[in-house]
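Note to self: the last two entries modelled the partners one at a time, which told us nothing about the interface. This time every component goes in together.
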Amino acid sequence: MAKYILKRILYLFLTLFIIASITFFLMKMLPGTPFSNQNRLSPDQLAIVKAQYGLDQPIFIQYIRYIGGLFQGNLGTSFQFNNEPVTQLIGQRLAPSMQIGAQAMVLGTILGILLGAVAAIRKNSWVDTLATFVSILGISIPSFVLAVLLQFYLAYKWHIYPVALWDNFQSSVLPTIALAALPLGNVARFMRTEMVDVLSSDYIELAKSKGNSEWQVVIKHALRNSLIPIVTIIGPMAVSTMTGSMVVENIFSIPGIGEQFVKSITTNDYPTIMGLTIFYSFLLILVFLVVDILYVLIDPRIRLGNGGND
Amino acid sequence: MDKILEVKDLHVNFATYNGTVQAIRGVNFDLSAGETLAIVGESGSGKSITVRSILQLLAKNADINKGTILYHGEDLLKKSKKEMDNIRGNKISMIFQDPMTSLDPTMTIGKQVAEPLLIHNKVSKKEALGRAEEVLRLVGIPNPKERMNDYPHQFSGGQRQRIVIAIAIVDYPEILIADEPTTALDVTVQAQIIDLLKELQQKIGTAIIFITHDLGVVAGIADRVAVMYAGKFVEYGSVDEVFYNPQHPYTWGLLDSMPTLDTSEDDHLNSIPGTPPNLLDPPKGDAFAPRNEYAMQIDLEEQPPFFKISKTHYAATWLLHPDAPKVTPPKGIQKRFEKFKKLGDSK
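The predicted structure of the combined assembly is written out below.
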């Protein structure tokens, strides 16, 4: 297993390299330049500025330079945002996004698992109908609509939470709920389907015949077996919760990373776009690795590496 | 002998979209301590439902709408959920048909075998696992100590059925219900499992209710046999009585469709024509009548009561009525009658 994980980490860097290369050339195809006041610059001034950022070189040279920097852990400096190094820029903005994303994932997944499980156990009852209703709402209402609704009622009208602020845990509650709706709905739906299947399987009947009560059967046998497909959807969802939070971050004025990504694209801030893309890719690949490890922990039939022979 | 289980007038219905299926229509039997009762019949005759009713492990749309199931004189159907949990896996346990799907794929077999002990007895985890290891050795799992930590997928089908049996017997049940425990296994493994069950029965003295559609298996393990058809017993008696002195035309059909050592290459195996009745709308008379070449007018109009053949042997067919005409059973059955006479003479 350790060997397998090491191999995967090696692939991780290889994948990142490829992604960095593709993004680099794609980005250069973006219309516009990094200079917002280009019209007012004389050709000479423009040449000086371009030379300063190395933009006067042929694209291929720029590429070599950038990749060279990457290997030294240097993501370059931002054109905007006070010429800050991109690593520092991401570092500062990462914490709020990660906090909200992680809180939303944990909340959504746990509630989704519970809701789905209860719906499956009480199949065709009012709980089941309620669960279906909640998960449809969670999936179909866009997070920003929910965010605005939460903001209006819980913050503006009833003053329970701050409207748009970023300081303590209190201020993270509303964005967390807004972002948790989608994972909650998805997980609940998958959990219900899988649990209904598992509950009708032979080993559950055997577990009942041992004298387990209905809830013991669920906790000891059904839950773990139902989690396998949940793990599959959690990976990509975790990433989309963290990247998809841009609009929600904007609504609640959270100094997060998503907001910055949008800004950097609209201003052709090449080093920041590159840095964030590489960072998101890294996150995604890492999540997939974690998902694969989770599989092994949950399902003993799955073995990593060697085509399942070890 | 002590009767530990008495099932009286059991009726089970299933609510379906098409209506109410009367799956069990009045089943009576009893079980004495330490004996083996086999229930045979074709698929859909209600064998599984009969025994699952005892443990109340029926689908949610099932309704045991009539009858009593007395276990040591107490009606199991009147027990609370919790009282039933205390009986399952402890006093009465069950072996399931398909060993490939009966074990929890994500739990080590040691834990799965130890589970009933932890549910029903105040034992430590260590004690329970120790006992599980002992029982795994008893059912013939090699190196049980090392294999305790393996998962079901690491065992063969035959071994998995041994593990399922280990789970069923780990708490020394008084009654063991075996629901077609050999059907999913190949023939050589079947024989091993039957031998194992017999051996375990002697060691722990449990009574067994053995369900099968394989008459060959019955002869090897049962003391008594009940033949079931369309939700009712049609004939029951000792193994010798049912095998060599069968009285119900359905039993004749079953026995005649089974090859014996006397069957030569030129003989052809008989089959019973037709299909079982639809229990959504069970026939008024004998359910077997439409498939029965010996059927009389009364078979279509009225259900036959049980006629007594001996103290232990009963069959529900109008052919046994004193006024019924004498019929000649199939050749294969006549041969069996001759054998039965010899058995009687030698006794």
